[in-house]
Amino acid sequence: MPNVARWPWQTGRTRAGGSHVASVVVSVTVRAPAKVNLHLGVGPPRGDGFHELATVFQAVSLYDEVTVEAADEFSIEIDGEADGVPLDASNLAARAVFALAEAVGLPPNVKVSIRKAIPVAGGMAGGSADAAATLVACDALWQTDLGTDALHDLAAALGSDVPFCLHGGTALATGRGERLTRVLAKGVYHWVFAVAETGLSTALVFAELDRIRGSSLVLEPQVPPDLMTALRAGEPRRLASLLYNDLQAATLHLRPALRRTIEAGRDGHALGTVICGSGPTIAMLVAGSAEAVELVSALSGSGSCRTVYRAHGPVAGARVVS
Ligand code: C5P
């Protein structure tokens, strides 16, 4: 049974027949991908509570699917890997509906149905993917003429990873993760993701990193040029040796048992392993699809994680599928 929430929504501003809206379609389904950070450099904390990042995202073929349907009032339901996803106004997909409705002057009267496959609080941008998919779905449902830049700005206001989930591919991100530059990446990268029993709060992991760093000098983060060269050349082995995450020490401190998962990945011949974002999911890069199947089977029998997924990247960002 899906989790369902419904509540009346008061809009402050409703524009009748505004120039942004041409006509109304009935239902739109969009899927949006998970992400892995190939390199995640974290700078010192900023005045606004965020940290300056230098990261390379890759979108991978593990998708959440969001359907929005015209309705008399706002409601949201979630199916699949949904434990721990809030069903109130703090839900990122709900916030995406309200933000876009506000921007185009429409009441947020849609039924949002989310089919989750991306682990919740797993460091793979599951909530951000739902927000990106919802923005694209409502944009299509309401046939707005907002354009890519305005959608990007709404996405950035919702969360640091939401703009990347809109765009997909492989991208260098700076700022708090919302400033994107496309990266040239040749070939297909095969991944195995080991998902932990329970999720981790991103804010908690960043706070733990600050605690570990204490008063030591933290330099502005940078992505090593070798990583870009490996991606341009399409060399998974070289890329594997360059996978890096500044949050890894903090995540491992909060979840020491993840070391066993990383060991199991190495024993299963992963070319390289890295914690996905703030974790606790562990990303393992492998040489090809046959190696991925073998690693999935080894990890499944290792008892070191809750579940295991196979995916490839890069893939496109949030796209309408029907
Ligand atoms: O932007 P998002 O809502 O995904 O961020 C969640 C939390 O992660 C933030 O509230 C902040 O504590 C932390 N964060 C950060 N620096 C970033 C991105 C996220 O400190 N660049």
Describe it for me?
This protein is α+β, with helices and mostly antiparallel strands and 322 residues long. Helices cover 32% and strands 29% of the residues. The protein is built from 10 helices and 13 strands. Strands 1, 2, 3, 4, 5, 6, 7, 9 and 13 form a 9-stranded mixed sheet that branches. α1 (92-104) links the parallel β4 and β5. α6 packs antiparallel against α7. The model is unreliable at 9-22 (pLDDT under 50). The structure holds cytidine-5'-monophosphate. Cytidine-5'-monophosphate (C5P) binds next to β3 and α5.
Topology:
Blueprint: E1 3-6, E2 27-45, E3 51-70, E4 75-80, H1 92-104, E5 110-116, H2 126-141, H3 147-158, H4 162-167, E6 170-174, E7 179-182, E8 189-195, H5 202-213, H6 225-233, H7 236-242, E9 244-245, H8 248-254, H9 258-267, E10 272-275, E11 282-286, H10 289-300, E12 307-313, E13 319-320
Parallel strand pairs: 2-9, 4-5
Antiparallel strand pairs: 1-4, 2-3, 2-13, 3-5, 3-6, 6-7, 8-11, 8-12, 10-11
Bound molecules: cytidine-5'-monophosphate.
Residues 49-51, 53, 159-161, 176-177, 202-203, 206 line the site of cytidine-5'-monophosphate.
